[in-house]
Amino acid sequence: MQVAVAGAGVIGLSLARSLLQAGHEVTVYDRAEVPNPHASSVDRSRLIRYAYGRQAGYAGMVDDAYAAWDRLWAELGESHYVRTGTLVLAQPGATWARDSANALAAMGRPVEWLDPAEAEARYPLLDLTGVERAFYVPSGGVLHAERVVAALARRVRALGGTVREQCPVESVDTVSGRMVLADGTRGQADMLLLAPGPWAARLLPDLEQRLTPSRQVVTYGDIPPGTRAQWDAMPMVLDIGKDSGFYAVPPVLGEPLKVGDHSFSLQGDPDWDREPGADELRGIFESAGVRLKGFDAYRLRDGRTCFYTVAAEERFVVEQRGRAAVFAGFSGHGFKFGPLIGERFAEVAAGRRSFESFARWAEGEGG
Ligand SMILES: Cc1cc2nc3c(=O)[nH]c(=O)nc-3n(C[C@H](O)[C@H](O)[C@H](O)COP(=O)(O)OP(=O)(O)OC[C@H]3O[C@@H](n4cnc5c(N)ncnc54)[C@H](O)[C@@H]3O)c2cc1C
């Protein structure tokens, strides 16, 4: 089959890789250079975590996601992942930590609950004043997102696929599989896979009602001198309250400490306002200050904006439309599932799995 993929983020490239391995002819088009620094997939880090609040369906997909990453690392001959473990802080009045722990226990992965004093004794960099309790799981870690996307693009080319950069798909006819590129060239494919990230509604305007691009600011900073050994032993920290929260990613994979914001802005346009302001950067970075002892010695280095594409209940939107399939709405948690989604969709293309069951699984409904 001839397959055209619109979008060379982690999803489009993972689909391309798996379909090439299944013997299809694949061309990937991207509106920008690859990796596109403005795409959702392109940042220094993305997390793999089992803690998923009440979204137990997605927690249940993480084992398979890990296995898919391992197959990718074996193929690449290199890994862009490091395990850190996960520390989840439970805020008074918030249920996310408890819901996550319950879901993990139901999966046969009990968590280790710590009271604040125990957690501070184990992780002396932390100040857990006001935290109800915390849980630790040894699983979870950090993917170097930009290196993954670059490696996937190289892999797609090595498998005989074509990646056309600076080549926007202007419009598509999902019924016939025809498409028009921005330079006016027309093309047709047996199968059209649309994975345009936060630009999805530009290509498929009806998605505008269901998907909200959400501008998020992430920050990077330097840890105080003399704390390297303690940071090397630190897990990722997820501090999720009822209405707000932050996450801190330890300085791993040669990158600085990262601090991001858990709440969705639910506004912005992925082509505009991409430079974060100094106040925004400071606000996000300092949100971690309340949890880090001696925060005055931490130094904000820089930051960037990234876009979530938020769907209802953060459930991925995977739909078949004629000769096309849409992959969108990966919200704030799609990266970890990229290679797995590629592999599962190749099973659909081979007729070994129905599209309906694949779509339900991608919505976090299990299966
Ligand atoms: C700040 C932040 C933190 C996150 N943290 C995590 C995390 O810890 N763990 C996790 O699993 N996930 C996380 N995510 C979510 C994850 O990064 C996304 O769900 C995932 O990267 C989406 O990938 P994608 O391929 O769908 O989209 P993108 O990476 O945006 O790729 C879409 C590509 O399509 C191209 N494109 C768009 N329109 C066209 C067109 N018309 N023609 C041709 N090309 C086009 C774009 O140039 C782009 O390269 C986070 C996201 C953000 C923003």
TrEMBL record:
GO terms for molecular function: flavin adenine dinucleotide binding; sarcosine oxidase activity. Its cofactor is FAD. It holds the Pfam family DAO. Keywords: FAD, Flavoprotein, Oxidoreductase. It comes from the Bacteria. Residues 3-347 form the FAD dependent oxidoreductase domain. This is FAD-dependent oxidoreductase.
